[in-house]
């Protein structure tokens, strides 16, 4: 019973993080924070489901993927701030790329 309640909680976390990801689309840093919260909720959901199967190696692969994604996002944010001086999407003209 407790496993199902935790699963519902993680699904609510996932939905709330998706809503915040869509709502905060104009700031890159807040968008990255929402994306990390999304990955955290998926990690908890995955680890909760993998405990039932006794195969925790998939959680390790997922953690490697999450770390690589976060490093890539932060490096893109640093490059953007160094070249344009702000992390707002409104100032960035994507048609030049």
Automatic annotation (TrEMBL):
Record localization: Membrane
Gene3D superfamilies: 1.10.287.3510
Family matches, as Pfam families: Oxidored_q2
Membrane-topology descriptor: Multi-pass membrane protein
Molecular-function GO terms, alphabetical: NADH dehydrogenase (ubiquinone) activity
UniProt keyword annotation of Transmembrane helix present: yes
Catalytically driven reaction(s): a ubiquinone + NADH + 5 H(+)(in) = a ubiquinol + NAD(+) + 4 H(+)(out)
Alphabetically ordered keywords of this record: Membrane, Mitochondrion, NAD, Translocase, Transmembrane, Transmembrane helix
Protein name: NADH-ubiquinone oxidoreductase chain 4L
Biological source species: Nasonia vitripennis (Parasitic wasp)
Lineage: Eukaryota, Metazoa, Ecdysozoa, Arthropoda, Hexapoda
Gene that this polypeptide is encoded by: nad4l
């Amino acid at each position: 019973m407790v496993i199902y309640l935790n699963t519902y909680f993680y699904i609510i976390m996932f939905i709330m993080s998706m809503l915040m990801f869509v709502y905060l689309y104009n700031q890159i840093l807040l968008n990255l924070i929402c994306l990390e919260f999304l990955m955290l909720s998926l990690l908890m959901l995955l680890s909760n489901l993998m405990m039932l199967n006794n195969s925790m190696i998939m959680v390790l692969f997922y953690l490697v993927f999450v770390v690589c994604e976060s490093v890539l996002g932060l490096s893109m944010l640093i490059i953007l701030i160094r070249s344009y001086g702000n992390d707002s999407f409104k100032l960035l003209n994507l048609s030049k790329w």
